[in-house]
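Appendix B. One record, verbatim.
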Amino acid sequence: MSVMSDDEVLVIERRVAAPPERVFALWTEPDQLVKWWGPDGYAMPQYSLDVRKGGAWRTVMHSPDGKVLTVSGVYREIDPPRRLVFTWAWDDDSGTRGHETEIIVTFEPTPGGTHIKLLQQRFNTKLARDNHSRGWNSVLDRLERVIAA
């Protein structure tokens, strides 16, 4: 078993004003996910979620400048409303799946809401990790706005 370096791991934590059951639903129900998935300004016109262990998921996002971005993975663990584990890899311009990371999201009840902890690991470069940090923070800002609405 190898120990990962800091460059290979991203951890983001947020507290949101909704119970774990609602937050978990926002991550796993397609009609809820489409409201916030993707950084600010991105649209998600295509998506499929098979939310079960071994089930595949895929989203196609359009950036504000018209770039099409496709990301997909497989659910490894579903433990409502506490934990999600899934893989993540971007498609390149030819449609080939790139380097795969693993994401673990936990939802812990706290007074007045939920503590979300997102851990993404096995990055192949520090730049990839840093880009995901910016992306996830923007995505979680959108999630918070959906919860507040």
